[in-house]
Specification:
The protein is mainly α. The chain has 2 domains: 69-99; 103-295, no CATH class. Helices cover 64% and strands 4% of the residues. It contains 10 helices and 5 strands. It has helices spanning 2-38, 42-102, 104-113, 129-132, 138-146, 151-159, 172-198, 204-219, 238-246, 259-269; strands at 119-121, 133-135, 227-228, 235-236, 294-295. A 3-stranded antiparallel sheet has the order 1-2-5. A two-stranded antiparallel sheet has the order 3-4. A hairpin with a 6-residue loop joins strand 3 (227-228) and strand 4 (235-236). Helix 5 (138-146) crosses helix 9 (238-246).
C-alpha cells in the first residue's frame, strides 16, 4: 500500500516536471517570436518598406489616374472642336468671298474703278448682248454717285427714264440709276463682311487677304479729272465722290452717315487709316461734263 502511494507520488512528480518543461518551452518560443516581431531583421525591414511604398504608389495612381484621364479627354475634345470650328469658319469665309467675287455688281465695280475703260454689263436682264453693256467713264459714275446727295435730284432723274423704251443703255438717267444700284449692292457686301467680323464668325486678319485688293482699287480711283455735283454745282474729283458715297471721308461726322456707311467705314478702318485715301497729291484737273454715253452698239460687229 505504501509502495503504491510512493509510485503515485513519483508519477505525479514526473508529470508536473514534464508539464513545466513543456510550458517553459512554449513560453520561450512565444518570447522568441515576440522578440523577432518587435525586433525585425534588416531584410524584413526593407521588404516591409518596399511593400508600403508600392501600396502607397498604387493608391496614388488609383487616386489620380481617373481625374487625369478626364482632363486629358477634355483637352483632346477642346482641341478637336477648335480645329473643326476653325476649318468650318475658313470654309464659310471662302464661300462668302467666292459668292462676293462672282456677283455681277462686283465685276462691274471692279471695271468702273479700273484705270482702263471697259464695257460694263449694267443691263443683264436685256436679251441682246449689245444692249447690256455700256462704257462707263469715271466722270459718269462719279456724277451718278453725287446725285445721291439730293433726293430731289434723284426723283428728277428717275422721272426722266422712259420705261416703255427698252433701250435703257441709251438713256443716261437709266444708266446712272444702274450704276448706283451696283455700288449699293457692293456696299451691302462690305457691310456683311463687317458684321461677320463683329460676330467673330471670321478672323479680321484672314479677311484682310481678300479685301486688300479692293482697298487698292478705292485708293487708286481717278484723281485727275473733276465733275460738277448736279445738285450743288460744287466740283468733285471722282475719287472724292466715291469716298463720300462710301462714308470714307475723314472729315465727315459720324452722325451724318447712314448705317451701311458706318459699317463700311468701320470695316475699312480696321485695315487702313481713312487719311491714307486722301494723302495722295491732287493732280491739276479740268472740269468734264458727261453729256454723252458710249455704248458698245457701234463697236460690236
Amino acid at each position: 500500500m505504501k509502495n503504491r502511494k510512493n509510485i503515485l507520488v513519483f508519477i505525479l512528480s514526473m508529470s508536473l516536471a514534464t508539464a513545466g518543461t513543456v510550458g517553459l518551452t512554449v513560453l520561450t518560443t512565444e518570447s522568441d517570436a515576440l522578440a523577432q516581431s518587435s525586433n525585425p531583421s534588416p531584410a524584413q525591414l526593407n521588404t516591409n518598406t518596399a511593400k508600403k511604398e508600392k501600396s502607397a504608389l498604387e493608391s496614388m495612381i488609383s487616386t489620380y489616374t481617373t481625374p487625369i484621364s478626364i482632363i486629358l479627354s477634355a483637352i483632346g475634345g477642346v482641341v478637336t472642336y477648335s480645329i473643326n470650328e476653325s476649318w468650318k469658319r475658313r470654309q464659310y469665309l471662302e464661300e462668302k468671298v467666292k459668292d462676293f467675287e462672282g456677283k455681277i455688281e462686283t465685276t462691274n465695280i471692279r471695271k468702273m474703278l479700273s484705270a482702263e475703260l471697259q464695257c460694263v454689263e449694267l443691263f443683264p436682264f436685256l436679251e441682246k448682248p449689245t444692249h447690256r453693256f455700256v462704257v462707263v467713264e469715271d466722270c459718269l459714275w462719279a456724277e451718278a454717285l453725287l446725285e445721291c446727295k439730293c433726293n430731289k435730284t434723284l426723283k428728277e432723274q428717275y422721272s426722266l427714264i422712259d420705261k416703255e423704251d427698252e433701250h435703257f443703255y441709251q438713256q443716261k438717267p437709266a444708266v446712272k440709276a444702274c450704276i448706283r444700284d451696283n455700288f449699293n449692292r457692293y456696299l451691302n457686301h462690305l457691310q456683311q463682311f463687317e458684321k461677320m467680323i463683329e460676330s467673330r464668325i471670321v478672323n479680321q486678319e484672314t479677311l484682310k487677304i481678300y479685301l486688300e485688293p479692293w482697298l487698292e482699287f478705292i485708293d487708286r480711283a481717278n484723281n485727275g479729272v473733276s465733275v460738277k455735283c448736279p445738285s450743288s454745282g460744287e466740283e468733285y474729283l471722282p475719287k472724292q465722290a466715291l469716298l463720300e458715297y462710301m462714308g470714307l471721308l475723314e472729315n465727315t461726322p459720324e452722325e451724318e452717315l447712314s448705317i451701311i456707311q458706318k459699317d463700311v467705314r468701320t470695316l475699312v478702318s480696321r485695315f487702313r487709316p481713312l487719311s491714307s485715301f486722301t494723302s495722295r497729291s491732287k493732280q491739276t484737273s479740268t472740269t468734264i461734263q458727261c453729256e454723252t454715253l458710249t455704248t458698245v452698239q457701234s463697236q460690236v460687229v
